[in-house]
Design a protein that fits this description.
Layout lengths: L15 H18 L13 E6 L5 H12 L3 E6 L11 H9 L5 E6 L4 H8 L4 E7 L5 H15 L6 E5 L6 H12 L3 E5 L9 H5 L2 E3 L2 H7 L2 E4 L15 H8 L3 H7 L4 E3 L12 H4 L6 H20 L6
Parallel strand pairs: 1-2, 1-3, 3-4, 5-6, 5-8, 6-7, 8-9
Helix pairs in contact: 1-5, 1-12, 2-12, 5-6, 5-12
Length: 311
Amino acid sequence: MQLSTPHLLGIKDLTSQDIETILSTATQFKEVLQRPIKKVPSLREVTIVNLFYENSTRTRISFELAEKRLSADTINFSASGSSVSKGETLLDTVNNILSMKVDMVVMRHASSGAPHFLAKHLPNTAIINAGDGINEHPTQALLDAFSIREKIGTLEGKKIAIIGDIQHSRVAMSNIYLLKKMGAEVTVCGPPTLIPTYIRETHNIRVEYNLKKALQWCDVANVLRIQLERQNQVLFSTLREYNRVYGVTSALLNEIQKDIVILHPGPMNRGVEIDSDVADGKHSIILQQVENGVAVRMAVLYLLGGGKKTS
């Protein structure tokens, strides 16, 4: 099995068959992760650099664990402790690393398009986008899709609501691309100031400003964090007011009397976009998302890294 692209720069570049291949391969790796010995030799002799220019906890740990489970050699790079702080350019940094004969780069960067820049200059090295600015976060969308399918069986025909800060969310964009390609119906919901004006026409999806109506409509709710660090102006009154109008609470879910699968890409602002009793409740699959992230990232690394076997 192989993908139609040598890199994973975004869901936008994948075909529906690519997505299906990744998800089916992740299923195999999740079975591997249930074994007493979780390590396989699939990427032995492959060297991977984790190139993180932006803070990360879940994504970075998930990639590092996936690489170790595949027996790859890994190099971890943080911009804060490197020559980047002395003025070194992105291309210089990567060229220096690649002079060490690196096979793959997993990259997170605050600037949209940074992984695409790498892929353009380093076509023979597999580049995996671990989140670039407000553009895309493809492995998050893949693990979200994997988790939804695991819970309810399919994406085709299902109604998915993406709730919260759509304007600044790379997770939202990757999810929209993936869900549309796999036959799901998508609604975005949030304050008008946090939803791009172009999104309805450009992506052919529903826009809803009333949270209760969005929840009544959907089968799955993917609740996003308010990204205050990316907002350069005041886009709503207070966090307390946001929670009152757009917070997913148990009281609201009880009021609509409908079983809805709850996702959140993390990190969560408990008491803002989601209440603790919902995040930790029986309909939440947030911890399953974290668990599935390792299997999905193993699948991506394996498919792009030329792995030969999974057992």
